[in-house]
């Protein structure tokens, strides 16, 4: 592969003419060890590697930690809304910043605990699209060398058995269905954790899994020792610099990838199943209600309703809702928890989740790219692998409504886990 290096008019940015596949480019950058903490974030037609730490914000229950280049670190108490705490922390960031990181599911809990968010402003940012790599910050020559390297970037996978823990999960589903019939809530997402029985090569797993998936967004990160790789089926929210908000709720699931005839049959089932249609319709209604709370209500509308989205080993019913931020609202306000990962009504569903499950952390939270100009892009964290302190795990859930059956919902978690379980690469 040949790479030409030139400097644009802006001295801080270099453009590399790059023939490498973006996935391989991201894996080589992540695996180089040159950048310390990093985030890889894929959007349609564009990949970003954010490496090294020029600035950092870590939000914990009651305390926000911030450090900016050239300034002493700070730790300040906060109360009220976590979104306001993040907004205020980034108000002190140096001009022209872009930030990348993750938001925990517990960000939306009424009494949040633990780490709620971790975002970095990178020292080096590499954006790959259209056969070019745009490098901002130091290290352009070394980036060019990495992108010129040939050879494989992933090892052989060792599939993880997803059919474990069925009895315990089915019991939790039955409990949730009973609570729905008792009128405590309409819908709740009940998830299960699947521990991987060996240490994992997270970067290689990301490569293998991305080759087999068709996500709305994908991500790979290593922040503060927590590693994650995932193929998000759903955009949680995007906000452009003009304040226009878009969210894409997914709800309703069937298996995909078993062949044309089988996929067509399960698609017909999905489109005609009353339980799946109801689950999706109430999710869209809730998304519209949330948009109206942060947007000018007159601008809120559905622009794409109940179409089938193919996402790796599963297919979903999906819709798109849009609106424009109301005066006084910020992009951080668009980071409400995904209705397809919590439930309806959300407060009661989130309370149920905290009783039925252990702490979720990143799972069903968000990976976020946000900019000084008000633009934000966030992916719902599903179909992901997590690794910390030498232990790795997967997690998947299903939307439980009154018509749910424990056996079918367990099968749905197996279908979702199969987006990543066959592609897990052991650490050599």
UniProtKB/TrEMBL annotation:
Locate the coiled-coil region(s) and give their ranges. none
Q: Under which name does UniProt file this protein?
A: Salicylate synthase
What is the required cofactor set for this protein?
Answer: Mg(2+)
Q: What is its EC number?
A: 4.2.99.21
Does the keyword Ion transport belong to this entry?
Answer: no
Q: Does the keyword Signal apply?
A: no
Organism, by scientific name, is Actinomadura monticuli
Q: Give the keywords, sorted.
A: Lyase, Magnesium, Metal-binding
Q: Which GO terms describe its molecular function?
A: isochorismate pyruvate lyase activity
**Domain (Chorismate-utilising enzyme C-terminal) ranges:** 167-416
The UniProt entry, under PANTHER family, shows: AMINOBENZOATE/ANTHRANILATE SYNTHASE, ISOCHORISMATE SYNTHASE MENF
Do you know which Pfam families this protein is assigned to?
Chorismate_bind (PF00425)
């Amino acid at each position: 592969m040949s790479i030409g290096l030139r400097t644009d008019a802006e001295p801080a940015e270099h453009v590399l003419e790059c023939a490498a596949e973006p996935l391989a480019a991201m894996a080589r950058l992540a695996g180089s060890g040159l950048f310390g903490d990093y985030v890889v974030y894929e959007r349609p037609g564009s990949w970003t590697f954010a490496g090294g730490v020029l600035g950092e914000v870590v939000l914990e229950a009651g305390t926000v930690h911030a450090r900016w280049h050239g300034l002493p670190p700070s730790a300040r108490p906060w109360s009220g809304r976590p979104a306001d705490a993040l907004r205020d922390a980034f108000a002190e960031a140096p001009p022209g910043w872009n930030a990348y990181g993750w938001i925990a599911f517990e960000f939306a809990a009424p009494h949040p605990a633990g780490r709620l968010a971790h975002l970095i402003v990178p020292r080096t940012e590499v954006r790959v699209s259209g056969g070019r790599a745009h490098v901002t910050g130091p290290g352009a020559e070394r980036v060019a060398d990495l992108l010129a390297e040939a050879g494989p970037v992933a090892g052989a996978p060792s599939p993880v058995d997803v059919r474990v823990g069925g009895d315990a999960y089915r019991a939790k589903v039955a409990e949730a269905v009973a609570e729905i019939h008792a009128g405590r809530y309409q819908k709740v997402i009940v998830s299960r954790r699947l521990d991987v029985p060996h240490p994992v090569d997270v970067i290689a797993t990301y490569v293998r899994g991305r080759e087999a998936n068709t996500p709305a967004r994908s991500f790979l990160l290593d922040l503060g020792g927590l590693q994650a790789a995932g193929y998000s089926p759903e955009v949680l929210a995007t906000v452009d610099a003009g304040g226009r908000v878009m969210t894409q709720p997914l709800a309703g699931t069937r298996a995909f990838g078993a062949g044309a005839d089988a996929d067509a049959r399960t698609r017909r089932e999905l489109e005609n199943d009353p339980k799946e249609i109801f689950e999706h319709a109430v999710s869209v209604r809730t998304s519209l209600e949330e948009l109206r709370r942060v947007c000018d209500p007159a601008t809120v509308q559905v622009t794409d309703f109940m179409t089938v989205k193919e996402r790796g080993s599963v297919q979903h019913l999906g819709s798109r809702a849009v609106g424009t931020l109301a005066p006084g609202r910020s992009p951080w306000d668009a980071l409400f928890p995904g209705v397809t990962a919590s439930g309806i009504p959300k407060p009661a569903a989130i309370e149920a989740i905290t009783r039925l499950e252990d702490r979720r952390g990143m799972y069903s939270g968000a990976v976020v790219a946000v900019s000084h100009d008000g633009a934000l892009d966030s992916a719902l964290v599903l179909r992901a692998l997590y690794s910390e302190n030498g232990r790795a795990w997967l997690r998947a859930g299903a939307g439980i409504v009154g018509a749910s059956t424990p056996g079918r919902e367990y099968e749905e978690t197996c279908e979702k886990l199969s987006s990543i379980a066959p592609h897990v690469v052991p650490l050599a």
